[in-house]
Amino acid sequence: MKTMVSIPEAPLGSTGKTIPLVGFGTAQFPFGAATEAVKESVVHAIEVGYRHFDTAAIYQSEEPLGEAIAQALRLGLIKSRDELFITSKLWFGHAHRQLVLPALQTSLKNLGLEHIDLYLIHFPVSLKPGTGFPFSKEDIEPLDYEGVWEAMEECQNLGLTKSIGVSNFACKKLERLLATAKIPPAVNQVSPIILINYMMVLINPWRIYGMEKFN
Question: Considering the entire predicted model, what is its pTM?
Fold first, then answer.
């Protein structure tokens, strides 16, 4: 019999909601290469007590995460989807005002859910509309902060996500967004990616795409 763990929660900004302090990431590389492993891992994670699951459009893990949630419900590991906290992220190529809502709707379809708990702008940059991964530096465009955030606010107002936030935003980028935001970001999820070579030198991995100028 597996031992269940209890994960503490914290207030989610000024939303009045809470977020589990420990989450389970679903990214694998190459993206989409091990969907069955993602599904099995999530089911096991739910079984031992994880309740916060992090995905993103680019990870290609939304569908196996949704399948795992459905399986956990069938197995009685959880009584309701509302016991879980699901985070997903807007891909760079969809970071345009007119593409935000359709992108979230696609994520919800992949997950098999009516709403998620937190939707994030994955990075403070855009790509040419529809650009996927990998991409070239010629595809990179400045982010329309006001337009994209208005679309994120619309997603929350429609009830498709309970909260909205950002990811990998530096302080100046947050200040720029907050200058026009009606709903402030609930979180800024920051994931320091460290590439270690033989000299133990830390480098900026986004430089290979010419993105450091936007950070």
Answer: 0.88
Per-residue pLDDT reduced to its tens digit, 177-207: 999 999 999 999 987 653 333 233 333 444 4
59 is catalytic: yes
Length of the chain: 215
- 8 Å CB contact between 145 and 180: yes
CA atoms within 13 A on the CB side of 197: 6
- Identity of residue 158: L
Q: Count the alpha carbons within 13 Å of 106 in the hemisphere toward its beta carbon.
A: 14
User: Could you report the per-residue pLDDT of 121-139, keeping only the tens digit for each?
Assistant: 999 999 999 888 888 888 8
Residue in 59, 119, 145, 209 annotated catalytic: 59
Average pLDDT, the chain: 87
